[in-house]
Amino acid sequence: MSTEQQPTPARSFGGVADAYDRGRPTYPREAAVWLTSDRPVTVLELGAGTGKLTEQLVALGHDVHATEPDPQMLAILEKKLPEVRLSQAPAEEIPAGDASYDVVVSAQAFHWFDYDRALPEIARVLKPRGRLSLVWNQRDERIPWVKRLGRLIGTQEHLAEPRELLERSKLFDAVEHESFRFWQVVDRGSIQDLVRSRSNVAVLSPAEQEAKMAEVLAFYDEYGRGMDGMQLPYAASCYRAEVLDRVLSPVTEKAEQTGQAGQAEPGDNAVSDGSSTDMLLIDFR
Question: Fewest CB within 10 A of the end CB: N or C in the chain?
């Protein structure tokens, strides 16, 4: 009997990175603008995955630093956007100095974070009046056949809205919310990729996955539109909140008090060349 352990949902995406990139929907341009800005700003993306949102951020002209803890997901992102600064790092250990970014954004990933560690880190790296922006693509399950698909492939991967969590942290101001509707065209192949990329499916055994694919194909054959494919309705559910008081690391606070802000000191957490012993950091730039 094999003793190999199945991956946990949070760590399951590397094994399905290609399917994730092929099958997951992108994000509407107008949602990317609302999350960031219609003018170029500095953006840190956490949990960037294979770059579904990153592509939109780059197209808007933003200066983007994308981070992702999974090396297989990050490798796909690096191939797609070789000009973007990339780091292999989790949201709980951000490889950046204090007050470095106008916006910190996360797409379809915030629910995996350790909030007690990640939220202070996010607040630390935001510039004064900078903001945290979050987005989840959610299928519109008010439509009966979409609801049936949801029952077939499992619950959607998102938290209940993060408003209370962010405001309770006392690190962020009032949370704004907006939603942007769009459609994803899927065919007989991409709907399988969409389902394979889901964490609750990725952790199944190979036999269980194949049984699930058979169910999905039967569903598609009933509701699909042949060569024209199927249009899945989504809403990009977006949240943003401005950081409250600036959160400084001890090193930066000391530097500001002595008038040496901006000068690196030993142990300064602004180091981003991979020399830190506290985190795994790979810069693909």
Answer: N
